């Protein structure tokens, strides 16, 4: 909700000014205190009492918070630009006079308005308190699902899933069990549960069948009355008396109770305490949108409904439109299948569209119109069934999640969203609730998990540790986001329909998203957007930034490359209020950031994709930017901090430094980045021991908060390659790792396999990649007591490795093993298959003997009834058929990028022949 987001945003703005060692402005402390008190009051009100009835008041809260933020940030921007353009002895005195005017403006235009709103809010709170004292706040539960199947309609379900649920319900386990059915709103949980409930096997298996609807606002007496098959509560009976009747009715009988639409564990516990465990195979089946609730209630297998495939979607649409007797006319079949496909597999949307088509003319022209307007038709005001069911999930969200959910609408349709980027954007937008005990990134991770558990966003791809890597949102839920977000003026999606009629309210839009490629529209719209804070673009247009009139931009994210030259980059860096900057560069001449970099006082996240360009040299002033959190550049050269009056600036919030070349881990640098969590470093070694000592690799061990480290060494000189043994000696003597490491990636280090003892002793290490000759030598023999926490192991391009000797107890928690580009490895140790936690083995560009050993492990585990182990093999090749050049790799200490490229060329050619 916009008002809550506005209040949090102003909180973060004030906090950034206060924590900055050299703030761009100095606010009057009494006025800051007054602002803070009002904001705290508003936040508490919105979290505890907010409702849709207070929409006008919440709009005023948002407007007041925005106004305060506009005044403060406008002054900051003007001040910084003036400071960079005018340098006189009287400048400081002029600044103070201007500050006095700003303070008076704040008092007159904002604080008084907030005080007025506060008095009105206090009156509303009193009304809520009185209402709570005088009325029962529990409303009657809903009478049933929002839509029902007609008797002539056959549900379209996954038969395998239905059979699994039936087996679970009728299985041999005698104790009372809870069977959860989980899925997003509109996916058909209630219909699926009803289908199971009426199955003849279920009807004959159980003595008593009971269906109760819980809903969000539930009443225990009403639910117990439903169990007793009584339409209304018997007013003379207490909850316990009703519960005793339920208990007596169920005692000694084999029963199935379906509890539909559960939203809290409390509801289940308050009613479930009256359900006896008769030790006779009784069951409770629940439906819920909340995955975490399902796990809390049963702690075992959860049955999740997935989206329908295209065939099932089409079958369902046909059933709804034509019934079981009639078939689809031939002339409508192709367009009908497109309509079903565009419903994206959500049964609820198919049902709504089917209802519209059933009542419409069965003509191709009308069905084509329906296809072109599919999403608007789903959300028609005259038939709000679909939207209202989905909107229920939004209404029931805790208020701190609502801005984050609405923000999902800023991404283009069907976009796979990188979770790390989403977190960085939420932080930069200032829409996360402050938590003194946790970093904002940790708070954001919890929010994402909550939204996933509520089935409002979907996991598209998982990380090695089970956390979401990519996520997305269903089209209908995105429509809900956009409708709510635009209604509350939370964000604005530019539409090509506005080409000749740009809304005048554009000057009030805080967040603008661009996904249509209509340049003339953008040019006009950007001129109006004077107060815009965020611009998220999916297009490539060089004039986009230069046409933006807003000087207050905080978030700029562009997914396509800037191709017009340095002036475009300069224009971006003139936005001195930026917190988040993500750009893609595709011209090779940029080797330094523009001088305007120095005025980005507010910068938190800098992401530059310059993979096809020369490395970018950052200015030394980067060490004087205390709000930095993430610096992610494909190739960055970072100078040493300049010793001077700013030596004490500590980058306490800096968590990520990625792809830094020749980074010197000096004592001074280590002190500047005490909380760094992710480091990606690259080195091209051309000297001897003095060079290693100069880089200070031993100081990496002093980064006690470091969790992820990526080290790549390119051991080349212009004319020769370092002797491998000397090189290994330098590495072993100078490299150290902190015990906080959870993820380690090494490349080109040429460590002896014996050095794995040092790495294996890291107590928290869960993820290890050994790439590009990270280790050198033909034999790796592991020992007991190492890699106690390791879950993911990848060995890629360690060309000399022939023999791997290990036991299953040496990797007690390993889950995923990846072996790639190991042409001379003879086999995978058979004991690897005995690791109880192992889930998958992946092979690529390995020998056929390795492939055979992996298949043997898979077969052996199958014989032991371990059917969960997955084996993936791509591009296997036999050692004896490789070119003679590969033999040279195995016998020599040489390793360079050219050799690696030749290696892959040979294997690609070989596997193409196969």
Summarize the structure.
By secondary structure, the chain is of the alpha/beta class.
Give an overview in words.
The two termini are 58 Å apart. With 914 residues, the chain is of the alpha/beta class. It is built from 31 helices and 29 strands. The longest helix has 44 residues, at 91-134.
Radius of gyration: 32 Å
Distance N to C terminus: 58 Å
Overall outline: globular
In percent terms, what proportion of residues is strand?
A: 15-25%
Question: Count the strands?
Answer: 29
The share of residues in helices is: 40-55%
The DSSP helix count reads: 31
**Global mean pLDDT:** 80
pLDDT < 50 stretches: 135-153, 230-235, 717-722, 877-883, 891-895, 910-914
Major sheet attributes: 17 strands, parallel
Structural class: alpha/beta
Descriptive terms for the model:
single chain, disordered C terminus, alpha/beta, 914 residues, five-stranded parallel β-sheet, 31 helices, globular
Question: What is the fold's blueprint, element by element?
Answer:
Elements (H helix, E strand, L loop, with lengths): L1 H18 L9 H21 L5 H31 L5 H44 L24 H12 L6 E6 L6 H9 L2 H6 L2 E6 L6 H8 L11 H12 L4 E6 L4 H8 L10 E6 L2 H8 L4 E2 L5 H13 L7 H13 L4 H12 L5 H9 L1 H5 L6 H11 L6 H6 L9 E2 H11 L10 H14 L4 E5 L5 E5 L2 H13 L4 E2 L17 E4 L4 H10 L5 E4 L6 H4 L7 E8 L3 H8 L6 E6 L19 E5 L6 E2 L12 E8 L18 E6 L5 H6 L5 E7 L4 H7 L12 E7 L9 H11 L8 E5 L3 E2 L3 H5 L6 E5 L3 E2 L2 E3 L10 E5 L6 E3 L10 E7 L17 E7 L1 H16 L6 E5 L9 H8 L5 H17 L1
Parallel strand pairs: 1-4, 1-5, 2-3, 3-4, 9-10, 10-11, 11-12, 12-13, 13-14, 14-16, 15-16, 16-17, 17-18, 18-19, 19-20, 20-22, 21-23, 22-25, 24-26, 25-27, 27-28, 28-29
Antiparallel strand pairs: 6-8, 7-8
Helix pairs in contact: 1-2, 1-3, 2-4, 3-4, 8-9, 12-13, 12-14, 13-15, 19-20
